[in-house]
Amino acid sequence: MIIARSILERLAGEPLPEWSAVESVIRARELSTGDYVFRSGESHPFVHFVGQGLIKLVYETYDGSAWIKAFAEEGRFFASLAALSPGGRASFSALAVGPTEIEAVPYRVLQELGDRHTSWQRTLRRAFEIYGFRKEERERDLLTLSAEERYKRFIRDCPHIATRIRDKDVAAYIRVTPVALSRIKARMRRNGDTPVPDSSRRPAATGNGWDTLATATVSWVPAKERTHK
Questions:
Q1: 3-225 belongs to which CATH class?
Q2: Are 210 and 75 a contacting pair, CB within 8 Å?
Q3: CB 221 within 8 A of CB 228
Q4: Distance between CA atoms of 102 and 76, rounded to whole angstroms?
Q5: Where are the domains of the chain?
Q6: If DSSP codes are grouped into helix, strand and coil, which group holds residue 147?
């Protein structure tokens, strides 16, 4: 099964017409740890779908710091909205946390399908709604919660990510230095707060892409075992 199709048709709530128009332009990629999907400032008008692995979306500042805006795990989609506009450029970078397989679809093709079919219009609308919800929730946490509260929420709501990344990435996500994160974890241990995911005991990622946007699981066929007509 193509992961892009599974995600898009779950958003639509029904089979999507003219799928062949998408299938003919899908780009499947296998990434190693640290490989970039795209870099900030690049022209990259594609929507990406994660079949296996984990992607981090990173803002890089003038002083060389890197802050993580979000993660995209199995069953998720991501794109730089700034890069989807004609002549636009990515406002952040996306790179693999570990071995990862993704599919990329040109946004232009999705727009053209949306112009022809109401089901595709609905799919794109729901995708933007999900993006907006995630963005609002993230902004609320950054503006209203303390660093310790952000960490507790992250390990509570995203243990499947927290146990797969290093502490420096956790710190970059909750917007603190690694030293400050170490102090937060030490204070939580003293207070008996649990759980505190141990990054030295990360479970292996599974090949089943489960989607936080839906309850259904996704069967993923590795790129090397897939053929496209």
A1: mainly beta
A2: yes
A3: no
A4: 10
A5: 3-225
A6: helix
Structure tokens at 223: 């790129």
Residues sharing a CB contact under 8 Å with residue 5, sequence separation 6 or more, in sequence order: 16, 19, 22, 23
**DSSP assignment string, 14-82:** SPPTTHHHHHTT-EEEEE-TT-EEE-TT----EEEEEEESEEEEEEE-TTS-EEEEEEEETT-EE--HH
Per-residue confidence in pLDDT tens, the chain, 229 aa: 489 999 999 999 999 999 999 999 999 999 999 999 999 999 999 999 999 999 999 998 888 889 999 999 999 999 999 999 999 999 999 999 999 999 999 999 999 999 999 999 999 999 999 999 999 999 999 999 999 999 999 999 999 999 999 999 999 999 999 999 999 999 998 888 765 554 444 333 333 332 333 322 233 334 444 444 3
Long-range contacts of 32-36 (CB under 8 A, 24+ apart): 32/96, 32/99, 33/96, 33/97, 33/98, 33/99, 34/95, 34/96, 35/95, 35/96, 35/100, 36/93, 36/94, 36/95
Find out whether the peptide bond into 195 is cis, omega within 30 degrees of 0. yes
The rounded distance, in Å, linking the Cα atoms of 181 and 153 is: 14
